[in-house]
TrEMBL record:
This is DNA repair protein RadC. It holds the Pfam family RadC. Keywords: Hydrolase, Metal-binding, Metalloprotease, Protease, Zinc. GO terms for biological process: proteolysis. Belongs to the UPF0758 family. Residues 1-52 are annotated as: Disordered. Residues 146-268 form the MPN domain. GO terms for molecular function: metal ion binding; metallopeptidase activity.
């Protein structure tokens, strides 16, 4: 009895040691007993998408990312991950499923593989790109005065947390010049709750010789509005940290629809 893999391609295997969709559509000869789908042909006998791919690359070379829509940028990326297949329908399906390019890159692997044409390895490659982007943004903060680079802090936190399926409680630890010492996820919770222990926050700050912190957590619902519990927990951490010379600069809540600052809202 045959089974249909999650990507929708009959010969794909993502985690079993057999070829995934990238190998399946490569130029290598198919394994014994397996067949390879023939690419669609034009009247000239050329694969129909080759000319399209080169035109898209030329537009990117000449005009940069501004010359391409989100789905076209994603399609351009998928050229490398799925080398011998028309990737436009896959790119459009991903955007339709998740809503935007950033949400595609931020989506978890198990949801990415629900989209026809995306196997486990391609989903992992997309997450690798997300990780690289996250590291780049963190590098922009390292050694700089965080309070003077607030937009970079927000960009970094959004890239790290906006599309997580569960709540995370993250702490940015700062030195006496308000430069970033460390960025750590202290707790991961459920879709609507994360346990936070003020003594643990303060203990870790003392271990790192941090004199200030910025608290960050996400709302998987998408709405960054602070709850009463968010406000009370933040005030408790402030009261615990202050006698030990540790300042809580802010508590930022990240959602897909934006962010909220408890300090900006005058809640702390």
């Amino acid at each position: 009895m045959s089974s249909t893999p999650r990507s929708g391609f009959p010969d794909e295997e993502s985690d079993t040691g057999l070829p995934d969709e990238r190998d399946f559509f490569s130029d290598q000869a198919p394994a014994k007993g397996r067949t390879r789908a023939e690419p669609e042909q034009t009247n000239s006998g050329a694969e129909h998408y080759h000319g399209h791919r080169e035109r898209l690359r030329a537009r990117f070379r000449d005009g940069g990312d501004a010359a391409l829509a989100d789905y076209e940028l994603l399609e351009l990326l998928l050229f490398r991950l799925i080398p011998r297949r028309d990737t436009k329908p896959i790119a459009k399906a991903l955007i339709a499923r998740f809503g935007s390019l950033s949400e595609v890159i931020g989506a978890p692997v198990h949801l990415l593989t629900e989209v026809s044409g995306v196997g486990g390895n391609v989903a992992t490659d997309l997450k690798l790109i997300a990780a690289i982007a996250h590291r780049m943004l963190r590098g922009d903060l390292r050694g700089r005065q965080v309070l003077g680079s607030w937009s970079s802090v927000i960009d970094y936190c959004r890239a790290a947390m906006a599309f997580e399926a569960r709540e995370q409680f993250r702490i940015l630890f700062l030195d006496k010049k308000n430069a970033l010492i460390a960025d750590e996820v202290q707790q991961t919770g459920t879709v609507d709750h994360t346990p936070v222990y003020p003594r643990e926050v303060v203990r870790r700050a003392l271990e790192l010789s941090a004199t200030a912190v910025i608290l960050v957590h996400n709302h998987p619902s998408g709405d960054p509005s602070p709850s009463r519990a968010d406000i009370e927990m933040t005030r408790l951490i402030i009261d615990t940290a202050k006698p030990l010379g540790i300042t809580v600069h802010d508590h930022i809540i990240i959602g897909r629809d934006g962010h909220a600052s408890l300090k900006g809202l005058k809640l702390i």
